[in-house]
Structure formats: structure tokens, C-alpha cells
Amino acid sequence: MDRAQKEQVVDELGQIFESSGVVVVAHYEGMTVAQMQNLRAKMREAGGAVRVAKNKLAKIALEGKPCASIADYLTGMTVLSFSEDPVAAAKVCQEYAKGNEKFVILGGAMGDSALDPAGVKAVAAMPSRDELIASIVSCIGAPASNIAGAIGAPASNIAGILSTLEEREAA
User: Fold this and answer.
1) Residue 130 contacts by C-beta under 8 Å, 6 or more apart in sequence?
2) Do residues 78 and 25 make contact, with C-beta atoms less than 8 angstroms apart?
3) 109-113, long-range: CB < 8 A, 24+ apart
4) Considering 20, 24, 35, 150, which has the largest number of Cβ atoms within 10 A of its Cβ?
């Protein structure tokens, strides 16, 4: 890798560190290519991405970034998982680590807050952005459906009474 390629990688990593809601650092030593592709596919489904980069280049890219505190985790064979959604990457990594003992979460960062493995687990337990939006919409929509039901109920009661009266007259 020549100097220009290294500079490009540092720029790409810098953009990742600035724009991501969460970055998770993990060891992946001993994982097969198929396992790594599976992790990448799961992360893509969740709206995130996985990146393997040289630790030295990642440390250079971290300089001056809000999540610079994760530089201590960049030792050995590390993989960076990230997403704009502050919860998605942590959820996927936590779920993947349960089924693969070779994938070990070291920590991560959420904005300028450093996360240890327990912190990543706590973030993974939080509801995602889409889940929060769905629960807010259901809270807002519930009273409206109750009002619509109350308004429509008397009309259905009147229709029921009229049909009962018609049946009596016919008999």
C-alpha cells in the first residue's frame, strides 16, 4: 500500500468516525471468510457497515475526532463496526458475539463517550430509532382510534335497534 492509498484510507476512516452514531471495536481472530461475510450481511441489513483497517491508520484517523478514546482498543486483529443509528451496530455485534466465540467485543464509542464491553451491551439493549418512532406513533394514534370508536358506536347501536324493530314488525 503506497502513501496515497494510506492517506485515502485515513480520510475514509476519519469520515466514518465523524459521521457514525456508534462505532464498535472487536477482535475477529480465527473467524472464517464465510463468518465475516455473514457479519457484513447482517450489519448491512441493519443499516451499518463493517471495516477492517490497519490499527496504525485507524489511530491516525482518530486524532482530533470525538471518539478518539477508542484508540486504546486498537490492538491485534480488530474490526470496526459502525452505523448512523446509535444502536444498530451495537445490536448486531452483540447478537453476533453470542453465536460466535471468536468475535470478541472490546468496546466502542457513541459520540464522544467511550464504551467498554458492558457499555456496548447496554447500548444494544436500547430500542432502535425505528422502534422508538413506532412506539411514539402508536401512542399518538391510540387516542384517535378510541375517539373514532366512540363516535362510531352510537351509529352502530342505532342500526342494531332499527334492525331489531324491523324483525319484530315482520313477525
Assistant:
1) 85
2) yes
3) 109/22, 109/23, 109/66, 109/67, 109/69, 109/70, 110/21, 110/22, 110/67, 110/86, 111/21, 111/66, 111/67, 111/86, 112/66, 112/67, 112/69
4) 24
Nearest Cα to Cα of residue 24 among 78, 77, 62, 64: 78
Angstrom distance (rounded) from CA 111 to CA 43:
19
Stated length of the chain: 171
pLDDT in tens, 111-167: 888 889 998 898 888 877 777 788 777 777 666 666 666 566 666 666 677 677 778
d(CA 61, CA 152): 61
Q: Which residues contact 160 (CB under 8 A, 6 or more apart)?
A: none
The SS3 of residue 77 is coil
Residues 32-54: pLDDT tens digits? 999 999 999 999 998 899 999 89
Tell me if 94 sits within 8 A of 120, measured CB to CB.
yes
113-115/104-110 β-pairing: antiparallel
